[in-house]
Specification:
This protein is mostly helical and about 170 residues long. It contains nine helices and no strands. The relative contact order is 0.11. This is Rab3 GTPase-activating protein non-catalytic subunit.
Length: about 170
């Protein structure tokens, strides 16, 4: 971009402006940032629901694991469309666990105190974990329908039939 400067600023001496520093920075590789975001979301879900026996890096193949430790400005080989069926199975099991834990947390909090999820977790206001799991399914190359069906089954099994019908 072309930046016009006023004549009064041309003769100023001192450190380089923040705009010039920003323009000199290398551009980031957006798919790599998106890959890091998926890992952060997975880690947050594991922490939030205290999921045991989940190894976050097992949800990624060797290319995906190597990409986590590279500079965000480098062009990295990210996982392609062909995935190992074992990795896909582990990913699907993880998403099912997240949905089950989210429904269980919601139902137990509502039955125990008749408190809504927003009141129980104010910092997560507006966060819908089952929807987030469906979004993650898209990134992790898992069928979204599997996650949605499991969510409906969980709602019915906890007696939340009105939400299951929706």
């Amino acid at each position: 971009p072309v930046l016009d400067t006023e004549d009064a600023w041309v003769s100023v001496e001192g450190p380089v402006s923040i705009v010039e520093l920003a323009l000199e920075q290398k551009r980031i590789h957006y798919p790599l940032v998106e890959h890091q975001f998926v890992l952060c979301t997975i880690l947050y879900a594991i922490m939030r629901f205290s999921l045991k026996s989940v190894k976050p890096l097992s949800l990624f193949d060797s290319k995906g694991k190597n990409a986590f430790f590279k500079d965000l400005t480098s062009i990295q080989l990210l996982p392609s469309g062909d995935m190992d069926p074992n990795v896909l199975s582990i990913r699907q099991q993880f998403l099912v666990k997240v949905v089950s834990a989210a429904v269980q947390t919601l139902c137990s909090s509502q039955k125990a105190n008749e408190v809504s999820e927003e009141e129980l977790f104010p910092f997560e206001k507006g966060k819908n974990w089952p929807t987030l799991a469906v979004d993650l399914a898209q990134y992790l190359q898992i069928s979204e329908d599997v996650v949605k069906r499991h969510y409906v089954c969980e709602l019915y099994s906890y007696g939340m039939d009105h939400l299951g019908e929706e």
